[in-house]
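Hi all, long-time lurker, first post. I run a small reading group and we've been trying to get comfortable going from sequence to structure in the token notation. Rather than ask abstract questions, I figured I'd post a concrete chain and ask someone more experienced to write out its structure so we can walk through it together at our next meeting. Sequence below, copied exactly:
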Amino acid sequence: MWQPQPIDTSGIELPQSVRDERETLSRQAHDIWAAKRLADGWRYGETRDDARKTHPNLVAYEELDDDDKSYDRELIDGTIRLLIKLGFRIERDRD
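-- Answer (accepted) --
Happy to help. Here is the structure in token form:
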């Protein structure tokens, strides 16, 4: 049986610039997910129904409850921590 084995990134600190943009990045992750669902024929529904392709989270990010927002935040945090662990640097271009 398959067992997930994510790379341990627990010791990686997110740069302040990333923490400052966390909600923007999380909103983007949600919008990408929602756009894909909508393109695949899904629509908003009070409950998730895979057969009818309805999902209660097909709303603007701001309308999600904190539990649902936390999924996107954790995805972003985990992805950036992994990039840092793999040796990438996150820098903001200040024009």
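A couple of things your group might point at:
The beta strands are 43-44, 54-55.
The chain has a mean pLDDT of 94.
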